[in-house]
Amino acid sequence: MRTAPAPDRSGPRTHRLRAALVGTGAIAAGGHLPALQRLVAEGELEIAAAVDIDDDAVRRFCAEHGIPQPYTDLARMLDEQRPDLVSICTPPTLHREQTVAALESGAWVWCEKPPCPSLEEFDSIEAAEGKDGGPYAAVVFQHRFGSGARHVRELLAEGGLGRPLVAHCQTTWYRDTAYYSVPWRGRWATEGGGPAMGHGIHQMDLLLDILGPWTEVRAMAGRLVHDVETEDVSTALVRFASGAMATVVNSVLSPDEVSRIRIDCERATLELTHLYGYGNGDWAITPARDVPAELADRWRDFGPDVPSSHLAQLRELVASMRAGERPRASGPDGRTSLELIAALYKSAFADVTVRAGEIGPGDPYYTALHGGAPGWAPRQEAGA
Prior knowledge:
By secondary structure, the protein is α/β, with parallel strands linked by helices.
């Protein structure tokens, strides 16, 4: 337990940043650590410590990657190391507690998706953030940060493509029975949700980042193959504040795996086709017949290729830390995709149309994404 309040560490960070990893599993080794190491090589930061409840695992991890201090106690690490940035790579049910602890110590947080299992938990994280200059907690939504997404946002902002009208957002992946034989998968308490939450959240977040606020959703969900608590497929119709309408499909039943976003505007169709990450070459722009060739060529010039990645997001997060500014994918901006997913589940399970902003305190879908719905909530919560 901390014996004294953490010092005020709000405002810009101008020194070489001290980072720490919490959780040493696959996403830490394959996603967060390589991005952090790249900035270590560039002199931006140092990795001071790693934390895991498994003492042997964290010691092996630190020895393998040259990290000085292994810990099994997060509070102790925060107290002794005082990191500027904490990278959270644990299951979503731990995210709120660990993120709030890091924020209260004065550290900024970079938390793996999904951010947490409910809007209530997300709002408690936001309440623990600094009010002016940080520290802030950002969610890993790396698909926002590729050069392709940036170029498309700029084109839409310029207005030359015309209004977005129709969109499709598709995360159709395949997970077999062996995948769900792992006890924590397919359960609300440990995985946080089905393919809408655990898989499709990236594409839905990118769609929202490009098209802006949504206003209403109508959805269906099913368990067509797997014996799990959560869904294994969902579909939704989403209306945006701009008037654009979208279809959203999230599946773990699709042998031909693909992640796709298509946006039909008045003067061009934008399309992104990839699986787990994209570069400029994964985008296509098809102009309307009356668009001059030279204008179409300009639209298709994406500039230097910055693939979507943890590294691309981390660079921007560190820049925000240097400036003492709220980073993208944090606070209200980081909440948007979780709110859409909560609304998707409520619409599907309660058979209603859900409007943006209606899920708040007092709504069962605010505290749990299954909303206690019969046939969907864990049996003890549904009273069965």
